[in-house]
Amino acid sequence: MKLINKILILAILTIFVSCSKKENRGRFNYPMIKSKISLTEEQASNFDEITKEYTQQAKQAWIDNADKTIARSTQKIIFAEQDAKIKEILNNEQYEIYFKEVNIERTGREKHNMTLIKEALQLDSLQAIKYDLVNTAFFTTLSDNHDNYHGKPEVYKTYFKEIDVSRKEALKKILTNEQYNNYLKLAEKYQLGKIED
Fold first, then answer.
1. Are the C-beta atoms of 78 and 54 separated by less than 8 Å?
2. Residue ranges making up the domain that contains 69
3. pLDDT band for position 130 (50/70/90)?
4. Is this structure's pTM higher than 0.90?
């Protein structure tokens, strides 16, 4: 019995330690951005403090405003203030990388990846228009149902997979077999629909 209790306590402690070590990144993948800009220890600490503070402000702006247009405007101001603070702690080269990556995060890494896939597929002009229309419909549907999966990563993944089936069917109709197979490989490479840890 004592052995079982010790094992149980050890298991609970292991879970607790592993959960406390996991960095909660929120909506934007700041750990990934940090990994791309080679920060010193002091810069990393300052970066974390700044992003934590402004992430809280951006969340609060969303909560406080029933009108989402006003909330987005307020968040833009908050993001600009955050960027100014971040610029103070980075050199020019680091800031360029930060600014590029944070703007990809803000507009949606998934949309960015779909643009990279589009370029790789070398679509003709008509295919490119249809590809954009398919993705606009996909992201509009995803966005319109945001309240159903917000803060629920597993629900998001399930919902994404469900509507991605429709997107794939539509893309299959506009792409050649070779392009479609290449699309599937690129979708896996960019991990579409998967939330980065």
1. yes
2. 28-107
3. very high
4. no
